[in-house]
Design brief:
The complex is a heterotrimer. In chain A, helix 4 packs parallel to helix 6. Helices cover about 65% and strands about 5% of the residues of chain A. Chain A is built from 20 helices and 4 strands. Chain A is globular. Chain A starts with a strand and ends with a helix. Chain C has a 5-stranded mixed sheet. Chain C has a 3-stranded mixed sheet with strand order 4-10-9, covered by helices on one side. In chain C, helix 6 packs across helix 8. The relative contact order of chain C is 0.13. The chains are: A mainly alpha, B mainly alpha, C alpha+beta. At the A-C interface, helix 4, helix 10, helix 11, helix 12 and helix 13 of A face helix 1, helix 2 and strand 7 of C. Strand 1 of chain A pairs antiparallel with strand 1 of chain B.
């Protein structure tokens, strides 16, 4: 990498800054907002939308907990309860967890690797709109009493044409289609951005662990999501056009659904977990004030976790009568996946041990993650044991386990990430004091809600029941769990108050309030649309802690158009320049075309030809270069 | 005036690049991995449904016919020739050659529509007759959507080649299109073997 | 308040399978607790240890940490392998084929009740009952499980058995009750609106009592002894009841609902939901939707006199 010493006078810098501002800003007005392809803007939209779904899913949980607080309670009749618990699972898994955790990547990865935008900006915006349409579809269903009611896992034959009437399950199937398209797009974005747009000098072994986590997640999404895409289209086809894929009387197999769904479903929870592991590494290294101990081992652990997660799915089927050899293999794999995660935890503890910890709120949530998640990890090892699983499968023991690992493993890190990166995104600090209230209410609430459920499962309480008889004796622990749920609600309320307070009263954050090592802290808070005026280069894993005074910057990129530097995959050597497209309203049009296609498919197979026409029109309009693009390209050619 | 800063000059880096140096190549590869996984899931489901059954195709379904599907495979393989030639032309920045071979490719693509129709007919079973029919139609159907995508993309790209909006950076898109064509043909082979030959085993 | 029968807990093992799983569970809890304490202690030490005067970068310390992490990783692997072997060992003992002489019962799961068939060499000695399965103490029982509509799951915590019933495939499990008792089970796979109230009882009784019970189940329905009961039978056969329910020895041969030939001998009605007493039975007949909304049994517009007669008839079906 050859560099020159150049003079940057203030006048040139100012002119460049103004040109960058003009080239990279979104257009004004409503049309500008709808066509804004800045990855930070799209990332924020995903995060805000996902938070709304989190609150909706939380309300659904609260309703369930109130209904179950006493035996034979009459708040929700069984039909409504079944819709609510299905909505809770579907919302949390498809509309909240995966979108928000991967959107954190959409926002932060380009900043952390020193580039100006994500790889395919318009596709990114399209992916958001498709996600939004999917979520709206599901809740429109709820409003007209057509919310799916067979669980987020939607087993056949219950969810099939014979036993689920109406359009409830069809709405479910197509909601999944939308969210899965969106997730796949996000995964391609992250992978290509990470492979091709890293700052010069950021070879793969110098990438932040956060970026590694997002990269691994991207690959997991790519190989897991198609399984549920196919499964839901099979289900939709059985319901719409009388295919017999799951109909045992015609050679179909109910268990085929389970295999297809869980082949996706198990990696899905690791797709939720792995980005959170990235959050923890960023937080721990910043608040321990030293790089994470054991970087190569940490990377290997992330990769191994990603691979192993594809080899566990049959543990959801241990009581279906599968062959014993199969049971033994999946039992072993399900226990072994604890090893890479355990190693990561040991490395974080070592990092804290050798560092100088500062107890700010993000670190509190990281510590909460460790304690709560490992409880879930232990019950995970228990349910991985086939004989033990025979007793606890499909009981509240599993409800306890899954919430400990999801809340511990994803939501604690997510809250920590909020406190950590909110200053970067908004330019304001969140309140430490409210943060501590949030944290302690959340820790207490989570344990109060879910710890009793281990006992409830062993005492005979199955999952997915709208009520239970008083004679079972399950009332007391259920009441405790409901009180815990209210505590969680209180903690989330404190969190929301904190967010709103910060926007008006929060202290200005400055570029780097935490003295953190990664590149996102090398620009303003919030960052300008072009991320960095002078794109950085790096020479180590902790750029801001190790940066020598003469660390080179990148110059020579066009400022009058959206141009980025493209580097090589392994060593991030500068390779070419690429022009990113202008903002466009076509992603919205294409998303609407996609929405119409799949929504019509809920009702008739003619959605397919209709969709073909609409989507062709939309994507031709999107892809055909025109107007301003042309003028800019020609002006570049003349320049040469 | 500020102090001198060390800078890496990117201004002389090229803007037209091919294959793994280009974003679109990676996007195309990503799409292939996703679609490929989807097709794998269909094939896996096909064999899963078959494993517990002795009668495959189950009575009264007849074996699938071989003539048209095999002809289709032959035409697909033949189509690789103009596409490969188009790819070479693109890398030479030869617009005339590119146009010529894409027109040929478009004709092939349009023929695939008819041939795919015959593929479905040759299954000799309705999609709603039984699980065998259903999985065969779904598998051919998923690949059929890739086929539709391929036909539309090829025809429109051919039109684009003749429009005034084509310029140098789009040569790379042509090679990515060829890349995807290889996938589209290659992915059909295992599906053809599964749907038309494996029931005979 | 009538006391509801039945224990329903994995903590109170009443058979060898449940005992094995319970012991395994205790061991797993113990290991988990120890590891939890170790990890949290390490975390607290890491956070709060005194660091005065330490160098920031210390290669020797880094090497030391690497050793500790490696040892911890090794201990993790060893612990997991031990747990896996324990689990395999328990699993093997659970799935060993039952000793000879097992009693065979076929259980079919329906939305939202359980059908149990005790077969025999000669078909006229088959007994069909619902929602209450009697077994002899100390003798292995093999259940052949099927699904009548959607996926259900047969689960009795005290006996440590659970198996999904999947349409299109039969599966079988075995268990043994080592002490007499009434053990409650519940469907453990979401199967629709009344999944919550799809319970059943397993009544384990000494061999002699069990044999007597089974003999009674094989008989046809008792002939009515008085006029009210006779009238009840007439009303039953003339109304829609007979379309869904079977009463052995009468024209009522419906297969959509539970077999009622000996319904009065059962402890509960509506699949383990209510005690089998007149008041509940009346309420259930008049409007099942009040008790199990969504159940497939419709409400009956029935005259009070007819209701009294039917109740008398059903109560006579011991």
């Amino acid at each position: 990498m050859t560099t020159d010493a150049i003079q940057l006078d203030t006048e040139t810098l100012e002119r460049e800054r103004r040109e960058l501002e003009r080239s990279w800003s979104s257009r004004p007005g409503l049309l500008g907002w709808l066509s804004d392809t800045d990855h930070k803007s799209v990332g924020k939209r995903y995060i805000v939308t996902a938070l709304v779904f989190f609150l909706l899913g939380g309300i659904e949980a609260a309703l369930m907990r109130i209904q179950l607080a006493r035996p034979e309670n009459a708040l929700l009749d069984p039909d409504r309860y079944n819709q609510i618990f299905t909505m809770h699972g579907t919302t949390m898994m498809f509309l909240f967890a995966v979108p928000i955790l991967t959107a954190a990547g959409l926002y932060l990865v380009p900043l952390m690797i020193g580039t100006r935008n994500i790889a395919f900006p318009r596709l990114n915006l399209y992916g958001y709109y498709v996600y939004l349409i999917g979520g709206c579809l599901l809740y429109a269903g709820l409003l007209v009493n057509q919310a799916p009611d067979a669980g987020w896992f939607s087993y056949v034959p219950l969810a099939g044409p014979e036993y689920s009437l109406g359009k409830r399950i069809d709405i479910y199937a197509q909601t999944v289609t939308f969210t899965e398209i969106s997730a796949l797009i996000t995964s391609v974005e992250i992978i290509v951005t990470v492979f091709k747009q890293r700052a010069p000098g950021m070879s793969l072994n110098r990438m932040p662990l956060f970026v590694w986590a997002q990269l691994v997640t991207g690959f997991m999404v790519m190989f897991a999501m198609p399984w549920v895409a196919v499964a839901t289209q099979f289900l939709a086809a059985d319901r719409l056009v009388d295919t017999r894929l799951f109909d045992p009387s015609a050679g179909g197999e109910p268990l085929l659904w389970q295999h297809l769904f869980w082949f996706f479903g198990h990696p899905e929870v690791y797709i939720i977990f792995v980005p959170a592991l990235g959050f923890i590494s960023s937080i721990v290294e910043t608040f321990a004030r030293r790089p994470i101990f054991g970087y190569p081992v940490m990377v290997l652990s992330l990769v191994i976790t990603g691979f192993l997660s594809f080899g566990l799915w049959v543990h959801h089927m241990f009581v279906t009568g599968i062959p014993q050899l199969s049971e033994s293999f999946f039992s072993a794999m399900s226990m072994m996946i604890a090893i890479p995660t355990g190693v990561q935890i040991f490395c974080w503890i070592a990092t804290l041990w050798a560092g100088r910890p500062r107890f700010r709120v993000p670190l509190l949530f990281a510590l909460g993650f460790v304690v709560v998640f490992i409880i879930g990890g232990f019950t995970g090892v228990m349910v991985a044991s086939v004989p033990y699983d025979i007793q606890v499968h499909d009981t509240y023991f599993v409800v306890a386990h899954l919430h400990y690992v999801l809340l511990g493993g994803a939501v604690f890190p997510l809250f920590g990430a909020f406190y950590f990166w909110w200053p970067k995104v908004t330019g304001r600090m969140l309140s430490e004091r409210l943060g501590r209230w949030h944290f302690w209410l959340f820790v207490i609430g989570v344990n109060l809600t879910f710890f009793p459920m281990h006992q409830l499962g062993l005492a005979g309480m199955p999952r997915r029941i709208y009520t239970y008889l008083p004679e079972t004796g399950w009332g007391t622990l259920n009441l405790v769990a409901t009180i815990g749920a209210m505590t969680i609600a209180a903690s989330v309320a404190v969190f929301l108050v904190n967010l709103m307070w910060s926007l008006s009263e929060g202290a200005p954050a400055g570029d780097d309030p935490w003295e953190a090592p990664t590149l996102e802290w090398a620009t303003t808070s919030p960052p300008p649309p072009y991320n960095f005026h002078l794109c950085p280069t790096v020479q180590g894993r902790s750029p801001l802690w190790q940066r020598p005074a003469d660390q080179p910057v990148v110059s020579g990129l066009r400022t009058d158009m959206r141009e980025i530097l493209v580097t090589t995959m392994l060593d991030a050597e500068p390779d070419s320049r690429m022009r990113l497209p202008e903002p466009s309203v076509w992603p919205l049009i294409a998303a609407i075309a996609t929405g119409v296609t799949f929504i019509v498919l809920i009702f008739t197979p003619w959605g397919l030809p209709l969709g073909a026409v609409l989507l062709t029109g939309a994507f031709v309009g999107w892809g055909w270069p025109r107007g301003k693009d042309q003028r800019l390209q020609r002006s570049e050619e003349r320049r040469r | 005036m500020t102090a001198p800063v060390r800078a890496l000059d990117a201004s002389r880096l090229p803007t037209t690049v091919f294959d793994h140096r280009s974003h679109m190549w990676w996007g195309t590869l990503g799409f292939m991995l996703i679609e490929g996984t989807t097709l794998f899931v269909c094939v896996a489901s096909y064999y899963y449904l078959r494993v517990n059954v002795t009668d495959w195709p189950p009575e009264p379904a007849a074996l699938p016919s071989l003539f048209w599907p095999t002809l289709h495979v032959a035409v697909l393989l033949l189509s690789l020739v103009p596409v490969a030639l188009a790819d070479r032309a693109a890398r030479r920045l030869d617009l005339a050659g590119l146009r010529r071979w894409f027109v040929v490719a478009s004709l092939f693509a349009l023929s695939f529509l008819y041939l795919r129709w015959k593929d479905f007919e040759s299954l000799n079973v309705r999609w709603d007759a039984n699980a065998y029919g259903s999985i065969a139609w779904m598998t051919a159907g998923f690949h059929g959507t890739i086929l539709m995508l391929q036909v539309v993309e090829t025809v429109i790209f051919t039109g684009f080649l003749f429009s005034g909006d084509f310029d140098e950076r789009h040569f790379s898109d042509a090679t990515d299109s060829a890349f995807y064509w290889y996938f589209f043909v290659g992915s059909w082979i295992p599906l053809y073997l599964t749907l038309y030959l494996s029931p005979r085993l | 308040m009538i006391q509801f029968p039945g224990a329903h807990s994995a903590h109170d093992p009443a058979g060898p399978q449940a005992v094995l799983v319970h012991r395994l569970g205790d061991l797993l809890y113990a290991i988990a607790t120890v590891v939890f304490v170790l990890v949290v202690t390490a975390l607290l030490i890491a956070l709060f240890r005194r660091r005065a005067g330490e160098a920031v970068d210390d290669p020797a310390r880094e090497r030391g940490m690497a050793t500790v992490v490696a040892i911890a990783a090794g201990a993790t692997v060893a612990t997991l392998v031990a747990v896996l072997l324990l689990s395999f060992g328990t699993g093997r003992r659970l799935t060993a084929t039952p000793p000879p002489g097992a009693l065979q019962i076929r259980v079919t799961g329906h939305q939202w009740w359980w059908e149990a068939e005790y077969r025999d060499a000669s078909p006229d000695r088959w007994a069909t009952t619902a929602n209450e399965i009697h077994v002899p103490v100390g003798r292995p029982v093999t259940l052949e499980l099927q699904a009548g509509d959607v996926i259900h799951s047969f689960w009795v915590p005290n006996l440590g058995v659970k198996r999904d019933m999947i349409p299109g495939q039969a599966t079988s499990i075995w268990f043994q009750a080592d002490r007499p008792g009434v053990y409650r089970g519940q469907c453990a796979e979401f199967c629709g609106p009344q999944h919550a109230k799809m319970g059943f009882l397993v009544v384990a009784e000494p061999q002699a009592q069990f044999a007597a019970w089974l003999e009674r189940q094989r008989d046809s329905a008792r002939t009515p002894a008085d006029s009210l009961t006779r009238r009840g039978r007439e009303v039953f056969l003339a109304s829609s009841c007979a379309m869904c329910h079977t009463v052995g020895g009468t024209p009522a041969g419906g297969r959509l609902g539970p077999n009622l030939t000996h319904v009065a001998g059962r402890r509960t009605i509506a699949a383990g939901t209510l005690p089998n007493v007149r008041g509940h039975l009346a309420g259930w007949i008049i409007d099942p939707q009040q008790i199990k909304p969504g159940a497939h049994m419709p409400a009956s517009a029935i005259e009070p006199d007819d209701l009294r007669a039917i109740l008398a008839y059903l109560e006579s079906l011991r």
